[in-house]
Amino acid sequence: MLALAMLMAMAAVDSPVRLYPIDDRQRSDDFRRFTVKLEKAVIKRDLKALRKLVDEKVITGPKDKDEGWGLFAERWQPESPDGEVWTVLTDMLDIGFEQMHPKIFVSPYYAWKFPRELDPRKHLVVVRDVVPVRESPSRDAAVVATVAFEVVQRVGAPSAGAFDWVRIRTAGGKEGFVPGQAVRSPITPRAQFALREGTWKLVVLD
Which residues of 36-48 are buried (b: 16+ CB within 10 A; e: fewer)? Predict the structure, then answer.
């Protein structure tokens, strides 16, 4: 019995926590059409079109007073083609949307689903399937493990090269480097979209 318990404990330690991609936009025709409009606005950096898709009482922070287009514009700078809002929304459109309620969608899934028992400052989420973990930050380096849609530990700071590399530690204890594009931090802007009076709106971006 003791041996069995030890084996189970070892398996638990080595078993990765996985957060598989979620994209529910096809579950609602109205919401899917909304995302098409959102994508067009984002591609064109169209401030006027974006404002029509954002709720007048949009929330941008944890306080009750952190709402309204004025604070949204101040925080996210949508009037600038280089404003952060455009990059954030582009990433969300690429990652997808999770339906939390018939009238609520959220994004990105890895921020909303991240396990509460883990420290988001010390972990990353792999957002691709079968990502090689390399011995050094190079495409030619030996592969020491592979990761797929799992939570991994962050080790040190990103390493810049031909493209960014991030050093990680897997659930099995293997350390190595993965491309920065393959992982996301759970500490990231989060959005909620809600059906308001028959129209989908961006209601939270914080």
Answer: eebeebbeebbbe
3-state secondary structure of 98: strand
Contact in structure between 96 and 68 (CB atoms under 8 Å)? no
Domains identified in the chain and CATH numbers: 25-114+187-205 (3.10.450), 123-184 (2.30.30.40)
Query: What pLDDT sits at residue 14?
Result: 64
81 near 87, Cβ under 8 Å? no
Spans in the chain with pLDDT lower than 50: 2-12, 160-162
Q: Whole-number mean pLDDT of the chain? A: 91
Q: How many CA atoms within 13 Å lie on the side-chain side of 7?
A: 4
